[in-house]
């Protein structure tokens, strides 16, 4: 069994937005190179991960953020969990940790993303996951503080406010 790597929530969102097909298309970034995601968590063999594998994972994860149907979200999340073959265990301080029988770097990364999302969902349910309501944006976001976040960034929020202001002025 292999320990599942920790994937920070901010890194997971960057993966979805930087490599996901829909967010890249909405932002007209399909011809741009993929972003550098910085250190790929503590993952053995991370340097062997290819762009295609990251795009596939980002597209699967994006569905969790974009869908408004809880049944569809549960199906996607359960598929991710089954593929990850996760086994919980307690460490010496009684913290829940995860191990898996998968060994390929892309599968380990998917398992790490699955455990991160399980933590988020355990503390706030599906309402924590969403996509930007900006007119030309489909980026994913996590609403960690629990407010009703509608935009992925201050930039998208400001663009929406400017559009609304200009529409009122006409």
Q: What strand order characterises the main sheet?
A: 1-3-2
**Domain module count:** 1
Give the overall silhouette: globular
- The percentage helix is 40-55%
List the secondary-structure elements in sequence, H or E. EHHHHEEHEEH
* Unreliable stretches: none
Q: Count every helix, treating DSSP H or I runs of 4 or more residues as helices.
A: 6
| Average pLDDT level | 88
Counting helices, strands and paired strands, the structural category is mainly alpha
Protein name: CGNR zinc finger protein
Organism: Actinomycetospora succinea
InterPro entries: ABATE (IPR010852), ABATE_dom_sf (IPR023286), Znf_CGNR (IPR021005)
Pfam families: zf-CGNR (PF11706)
What does this molecule look like?
This is CGNR zinc finger protein. It holds the Pfam family zf-CGNR. The structure is a single chain. The chain has one domain. Helix content is 48%, strand content 11%. It starts with a strand and ends with a helix. The chain has helices at residues 9-19, 21-26, 51-66, 70-84, 105-122, 154-169, and strands at 2-3, 86-90, 96-100, 129-131, 140-142. The longest helix has 18 residues, at 105-122. It is mainly α. Strand 4 and strand 5 form a beta hairpin. It is globular and about 65 Å long. A 3-stranded antiparallel β-sheet has the order 1-3-2. Strands 4-5 form a two-stranded antiparallel ribbon. The model has no long low-confidence stretch (mean pLDDT 88).
């Amino acid at each position: 069994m292999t320990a599942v790597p920790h994937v920070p929530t901010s890194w997971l969102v960057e993966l979805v937005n930087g490599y996901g097909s829909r967010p890249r298309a909405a932002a007209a970034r399909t011809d741009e190179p993929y972003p550098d995601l910085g250190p790929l968590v503590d993952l053995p063999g991370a340097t062997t991960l290819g762009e295609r594998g990251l795009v596939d994972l980002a597209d699967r994860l994006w569905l969790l953020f974009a869908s408004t149907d809880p049944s569809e979200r549960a199906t996607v999340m359960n598929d991710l969990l089954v593929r990850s073959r996760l086994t919980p265990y307690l460490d010496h301080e009684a913290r829940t940790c995860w191990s898996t029988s998968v060994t390929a770097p892309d599968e380990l990364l998917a398992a790490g993303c699955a455990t991160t999302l399980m933590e988020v969902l355990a503390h706030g349910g599906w309402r924590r996951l969403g996509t930007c309501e900006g007119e030309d944006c489909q980026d994913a976001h996590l609403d960690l503080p629990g407010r009703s976040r509608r935009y992925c960034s201050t930039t998208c929020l400001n663009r929406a406010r400017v559009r609304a202001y200009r529409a009122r002025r006409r």
